[in-house]
Specification:
The relative contact order is 0.04. The protein is mostly helical. The chain has three helices and no strands. The termini are far apart.
């Protein structure tokens, strides 16, 4: 068994034939949906950009909830501390 055959997992001719068949099927499906390779790459890029933005949006919402709660909790804490300080 040659190094090339070992690397490819089969004989080079069989690997080329398999790649041609799979490429034809994938091209057929992509053509049926009207996709191009750039559409696929743009979709992958958009997925990661949306995932990145979603992460920061979640942090923004989390910090918003903390600030909203702190607007009530901190003044109440200060008033309770002042009320207990007099005693």
């Amino acid at each position: 068994m040659s190094a090339l055959t070992r690397f490819l997992g089969d004989s080079p001719l069989k690997v080329i034939l398999k790649l041609l068949v799979v490429s034809f099927l994938v091209g057929l499906v992509m053509n049926a949906f009207g996709w191009s390779p750039m559409d696929v790459l743009d979709g992958i890029r958009k997925f990661f950009v949306d995932l990145w933005n979603l992460g920061f949006h979640a942090i923004d919402r989390f910090l918003g909830y903390i600030l909203l709660g702190a607007a009530i909790v901190v003044p109440a804490f200060i008033l309770l501390r002042l009320a207990n300080y007099r005693k």
